[in-house]
Amino acid sequence: MRNWWRSIRDSVSQIKASGAFDVGDIVLVAVVVLVGFSAFALGQLAVVQEKQPAVRAFERSILDEPPLRVGGLVVGSRRGSKYHYPWCTGARSMNEENKIWFDSVEDAQEAGYAPAGNCTGLR
């Protein structure tokens, strides 16, 4: 390794001594070398990314929650007077034993339930 470095250093010294040394030439060589290394690195990165499987990220809270059990279009509580879509926070916070499922908004209203104000889309 030292012999290789010494030969490069000797070559640079000879070029400087000959007077054929120009700062623009050094900048051009440096740019060409950097572009070459960059192209090589990008090619390697592309090959590595093709070999890796796709990553799917989910919020931990979504994975921990039980799936929705949909028995109808809207749900109300036996103890309350509001109806919700199954994905609204009010419906998700109800105990399963207290849920009453309705096939339509009209069915819920006929049973005396009103739309929940915090459930978007129910008005």
Structure in words:
The relative contact order is 0.10. The N and C termini lie far apart (79 Å). This protein has a four-stranded mixed beta sheet. Strand 1 (74-77) and strand 2 form a beta hairpin. The chain is built from five helices and four strands. It folds into two domains: 2-51; 67-115, no CATH class. With 123 residues, the protein is of the alpha+beta class. It has helices at 2-18, 23-51, 60-64, 89-92, 105-110, and strands spanning 74-77, 82-84, 99-102, 114-115. The protein is rod-shaped.
What does the overall shape look like?
Answer: rod-shaped
Count of individual beta strands: 4
Helix count, DSSP H or I runs of 4 or more residues? 5
* Element order: H for helix, E for strand: HHHEEHEHE
Beta-strand fraction estimate: 5-15%
Helix content: 40-55%
Radius of gyration, whole Å: 35 Å
Sheet having the most strands: 4 strands, mixed
How many domain modules? 2
Helix/strand/pairing class, anyone? alpha+beta
Strand order of the largest sheet: 3-1-2-4
As residue ranges, the low-confidence spans are none
List keywords for this structure.
50% helix, 5 helices, 2 domains, 123 residues, 4 strands, four-stranded mixed sheet, alpha+beta
Question: How do you describe this structure in short?
Answer:
This protein has 123 residues and is α+β, with helices and mostly antiparallel strands. It contains 5 helices and 4 strands, in the order αααββαβαβ.
